[in-house]
């Protein structure tokens, strides 16, 4: 048996494409959130691997019978959870070709095209984002871009670069003095990166944000935190600012934060994992104003840029900071091109040695659609999010929780609706108190808990319906429901249907309340 039998490749390849197309045609009919119980699969599959070959058809059938029920359908048009993971035909083709070539482009010589295409595509995309020229290879002043797997890696790699640069100046023995800054809205990736990078757990500053400033990190709060640290003879090192936070898509003021950081020699990384792609639209580019003061910028093309998993785009102003920290030079990788310093060896820009030919995916996406269409795809999602937002606003039982900038709508059953007992019931306050089991006057904390409980139950029943999938965020003690538009197959009808599902579930949840 030949594991790379080309006739079988052809036969199975066409069958596989057909089965994926079938999946996409039917995906809207599956419960979006998988309804299986933990451990379901072990009961269905044999306890050990087969000794003898099994036909492709049998395996495909098991996929249908056993795997698909345990899939949460991220590509469903009714998927509105977390952030999207938007795929496309072009992304798929690029991924397929990358796997087809099967090259491992860790250094230039191991596949020159892989390295060179990556540097070209990162310049193309950097230009589309109007990144300062210092972040591009073409200007030849030390900046450039790299494709990593995830934002977690981007933050870890840049944090390590910032750490080492600082320690190089002040001495390695000062590691325990280095301080890392973020806000209470910064992704947990920063905490993990700080931990791995050996930053003392007490040296991660989580600066509080407020609803009244839409959960953006205030430059004044940053400066106060830094000044306190400096007074205590600690050393400010790294700030992670976010454009499009995970809970509510809040936007930190990049320019003013960079201005503060500059006074203390802090490396600023701008994490735009979700919203970054939208910055190719001129109407959103202002969110990046001042990014020339940052040291690095990243976004996930696999989130909301039609590039199949996994593709995190990272640009740095001084690539030597990354390579000083991350390069290795073992004998078995030595070659003339690398020794000449004329080439990029991307192994020195990342954690792992091995890397896929990921730039093919981005190259196919950028060429197959063109920037104008990509902008239109994104604007279309934003329009659909606006539609959803307007539907929320028209129902007085609900509130839009924070201003919407991109394609994420954060909403909840309004505390006012609950305070007025409308439309829950027409009884007295005592009845309301009784129903919610507090058995007395509702004090503020209880009120908050009650509002959260109602919204949590609502989200559970929305997702239990199987018709849509949304997730939640917890901000300033408030449980908010997130509707993130951005799955490639989503159309306006799906968004309208999603709102109907929310209303239906709210109707029945609230009628239970009024009967009690
Ligand atoms: C999704 C997300 C991340 C984490 O991304 P990974 O690629 O999974 O590591 C980090 N930051 C923000 C703002 C995100 O939305």
TrEMBL record:
- Tell me which cofactor or cofactors this protein depends on: pyridoxal 5'-phosphate
Q: Name one GO cellular component term.
A: cytoplasm
On the tree of life, the source organism's domain of life is Eukaryota
The GO terms describing molecular function are: carboxy-lyase activity; pyridoxal phosphate binding
User: What's a Pfam family in this record?
Assistant: Pyridoxal_deC
Keyword annotations:
Decarboxylase, Lyase, Pyridoxal phosphate
Under what name is this protein listed?
Tyrosine decarboxylase
Determine if Cell division is one of this entry's keywords: no
Q: Which InterPro entries match?
A: Aromatic_deC, PyrdxlP-dep_de-COase, PyrdxlP-dep_Trfase, PyrdxlP-dep_Trfase_major, PyrdxlP-dep_Trfase_small
User: Keyword Lyase on this protein?
Assistant: yes
Q: Which residues carry this modification: N6-(pyridoxal phosphate)lysine?
A: 303
